[in-house]
Amino acid sequence: MAKKVAVVLAGCGVFDGSEIHEASAVLVHLSREGAQAEVYAPNITQMHVVDHVKGQPTQEQRNVLVESARIARGNIKDLAKLDVKGLDALIIPGGFGVAKNLSTWATQGKNCSISKEVENVLRAFHAAQKPIGLCCISPVLAAKLFPGCELTVGHDTECEQWPYAKTAETMKELGCRHVNKHVTEIHVDSRNKLVTTSAFMCNAPIHEVHDGIGKMVREVVRLA
């Protein structure tokens, strides 16, 4: 039987939704591992819409589920309908949508709140001891919900290669253990069944991001 893995998206586009290359890499590697992806997104309005040419917010409004459906080629379900009992694992790609639409991390950092639907899903998989894969910025969700867990978002010292390294320091303030890893590496928290990799938290060639996500996906499927 193929493993069924829920993939939760946060819109379409790095600055206001799911990072498209990360989401695509997750789906490609799940297919390669013989797993069946079931894509979900919350049926909510995005925090805002960003013009990805100018890098500036616009006055437009978009829906997270509708936008995520672009990546899922229309094969997507409302997150409210997710039933953990029929699924073997959960993966959440990164992108600013995680910090803007699935949570308020972008504006409130460690004092953020997480969307109730997203929190319920994460807690359900965690309680069922089913593996959770997180990449890029999405490990902050676990840092907020599961104190004492082990995670990586790459490195904790800011430099040109690691421009978002302060995220690791903020996660430590929430009580989690951050483990420095290169973009092609993963960290596995065996106790909490969390598998994390840094993806585009690193200024790295896209194939290295793809390779790191592949290792994360393979480990999630193995643990499922």
From TrEMBL:
Gene3D superfamilies: 3.40.50.880. Coiled coil: none annotated. InterPro entries: Class_I_gatase-like (IPR029062), ElbB (IPR026041). This is GAL3B protein.
